[in-house]
Amino acid sequence: MLRGSIRNKIVSIAIGLIILMVITSALSIVMAGTVSHLLGELTNKYIPAYGHLARADIRSVERGLALRQMVIAKMQNPPDEAVYAERLKVFEETDPQMDQEAQAARKLINSIIDDKTTPSNNIALARLDDRIDTAVNDLRRHLNEDDARLLEELKAQDFAAVKARLAQVDELRAEFNRKLEDIRSDMLTQVYASAVTVIGNQRQAVVISIIVTMLAAMLGFVFAFLVSGGITRPVLSLLAGTREVEAGRLDGSIPVTTHDEIGQLSAAFNRMVEQLRQKKEIQETFGRYIDPRIVAGLIDQRGLTATEGQRRVMTVMFCDMKGFSKLSEGMTPQGLVKIMNHYLTTMSGPIHDHRGIIDKYIGDAIMAYWGPPFIEDADQAHFACLAAVDMIGRIESLRKDLPELLGVRTMPADCDLRIGVATGEALVGSIGSEFMMNYTVMGDTVNLASRLEAANKLYGTHALVAEDTVRKAGADIEFREIDRVFVAGQSRPQVVFELMGRRGELTPHQDLLRARYADGLLAYRAGRFDEARAAFKAAVDAVPGDGPSAALLSRIEALQKNPPAADWDGAWHIDSK
């Protein structure tokens, strides 16, 4: 048998182990059952009973402390009634809790006495039960009577009597606590005795386990000696290679030294490592050009549909740097690249932090989107708006960094940011030709986001947001309705909002601005231009330099000179793209 195949060797040794297990199993089961039963009594009865007694002692101390704090609160001038009421509540709650803990301990002690299947000092346990009963029912009753008299004297503000009574109460409580401490000490002795019994039985089981282990080790040694040359070395080599892969190191391969099943497994492992290495190289290379989530989805062919487009509700953002053309005039190519890389890194950070997908860089413009399968549908507008808020918050640091990057004191033009965000149905998928594909989004929602980014020029704002985005963004974001407009390429008017910031971060002046602007917008749409002018001027007074208010004031002047048609609904046409 030992000269046969590896399978026969394993079977023969397994039969020997099974015979050994059958011989010793009955004794092992009995010993394990005894130890388990004793250990269960120790952990489920002895130790919990000791814990209940300890908590009863703690409740007694808490009750005494609460009583003293009540006396102190009443003796203050004027009395601190709030503290008195609070500590009175603690004083009243701890008494039933102390009684519950004591009764729970007695119940567990009686269950130990009633269990005839385990060795225990039932006489000592019975005495403990009687002592708990005496301490709880007699001493605590006298203590509660004195506590009640003290509370009456305290309410009567008889502080001389209170002091005398408090000394008497402290003496009774000290005696009660001493008895509880003695009971706990004796209970701990019983816990130790039970633990010693468990350990003795466990040692017997350990001796049997050692004998069985020694026999198994001898057979295992024979087995290892017989088959180590043909199995263990290739297996160890395979294990080492697996650990290298687990640690992310895909550079090496394992040697194939045999032609049996283990050799075939080693060859398959090497092929797998090669495929993983190629996949990792692809992801690392294209992860700098395409979002790694898109790369992973296209490679795995699970999360993304590589060749078929889908209609999905997406949130799209366009971001553009104001004044870039003037800023780039006269700048060296090296300086321009340095400025662009820093600007794009600064503004791409919030998009990445808030789980957005950067679709492309178009000069100084950034196109990004949020939506399934990269983010839950309910969260997409919320995260897009948070990203826009953080991008606006980075403008000041960007203005300070740019001169330092170029080594100049001041920039030739002040940079600023314009953002447009829209939510709606879009075509999502890999779009392109047989020579080049791009996983992107297309449709009216994309065009609307682009138009809103450009509309910031008209209103002097940083970020304009479509109505559907506002509806999905949630209550954590603050918006201001700006206008109702027809943008180029859209057949119906869009309600446009300004993104103001996170909830709770607006100043009182901004709140006043939003309220006055809303009044002006209502009057403007109703054709009450004088009333609208007054409201918009009040908005400018609240926040000087407010762009939308200035734009609407200028528009009102033009409309009063050339009044609109009778069916005018307040929607404004923006023809520029």
What's the short story on this structure?
The chain is of the alpha+beta class. The protein has helices at 6-75, 81-114, 122-155, 159-246, 261-286, 292-300, 324-328, 333-353, 380-393, 395-406, 444-459, 467-473, 508-525, 529-542, 547-561, and strands at 310-322, 357-362, 365-370, 416-432, 437-442, 463-466, 477-487, 494-502, 572-574.
CATH superfamily of the largest domain: Nucleotide cyclase, GGDEF domain
Name of the top-level CATH class of the largest domain: Alpha Beta
Main beta sheet, described? 9 strands, mixed
What's the helical proportion of residues? 55-70%
Overall description:
- This protein is α+β, with helices and mostly antiparallel strands and 577 residues long.
- The protein has two domains: 16-222; 292-506, Alpha-Beta Plaits, CATH 3.30.70.
- The protein has helices at residues 6-75, 81-114, 122-155, 159-246, 261-286, 292-300, 324-328, 333-353, 380-393, 395-406, 444-459, 467-473, 508-525, 529-542, 547-561, and strands at residues 310-322, 357-362, 365-370, 416-432, 437-442, 463-466, 477-487, 494-502, 572-574.
- Strands 1, 2, 3, 4, 5, 6, 7, 8 and 9 form a nine-stranded mixed sheet that branches.
- A hairpin with a 4-residue loop joins β4 and β5.
- α8 (333-353) packs across α9 (380-393).
- The termini are far apart.
- Residues 1-5 have low confidence and may be disordered.
